[in-house]
Amino acid sequence: QELDLNGVRIIQEALRPEAQVALLEEVRGILRAAPLVQPVTPSGRPLSVRMSAAGDYGWITDRGGYRYEARHPNGAPWPPIPDCLLELWELYAEANRLPESCLVNWYAPDARMGLHQDNDEADFSQPVLSVSLGDEARFRVGGINRSDPTRSVWLKSGDIAILHGKARLAFHGIDKLRPNSSRLMPSGGRINLTLRVVT
Ligand code: MD3
Ligand code: FE
Description:
The chain has helices at 17-33, 83-92; strands at 2-5, 8-11, 50-55, 58-62, 65-69, 101-107, 113-116, 128-134, 136-141, 151-155, 160-163, 172-178, 190-196. It is mostly beta strands. It has one domain (2-196): Sandwich (Jelly Rolls), CATH 2.60.120. The strands form three sheets. It has a seven-stranded antiparallel sheet, with helices on one face. The chain has a four-stranded antiparallel sheet with strand order 7-12-9-10, with no helix packed on it. Strands 4-5 form a two-stranded antiparallel ribbon. The longest helix is centred in the first third of the chain and has 17 residues, at 17-33. The mean pLDDT is 97. Fe (iii) ion binds at residues 116, 118, 172.
């Protein structure tokens, strides 16, 4: 039920099925106000993951670089972070600040996320909390150097991961999804929510 992967704390089945359904409804509300976009890297390569956000800031990448912005690319402010997510932060993050951003990552069945480091935030002493919904995903985490050995685990719908301490700057990524592995979204795919302190 609880697992440690290179310093990443994983709480399996933290959300019961009913809580997952309720959270999915909140995510649909976020996406009505802030539609998913397919971001491109600064070099112009599209990511396979589509993204949106809630909170004071959302993470953006385009020809202008990687950064946090207070508005959706369409000019609208990001919608607020749902209370149920703030409660999960309170319960699990052991942070001394409130989250300023909830990144919404949408994985179509063939989407991936290459090994990367999250370093666009100003305060690495604050954790990142991630919630997975929908199809299972092979999550890989290494160390603070790209060449460090990695370990991997399947993240399932309702699992929470907390990245704190040394793991906060660990390289990590999503290798692949397991198709039709969850009944939460019958048409498949995966949503990952990450709560972060940004400033
Ligand atoms: C380890 N998301 O949004 S969540 C990301 O499943 C991201 O969408 C993946 O990597 C996803 O940046 C993985 C788990 C996660 C999130 C942030 C981390 C692991 C992390 C930050 C540092 C180390
Ligand atoms: Fe990341």
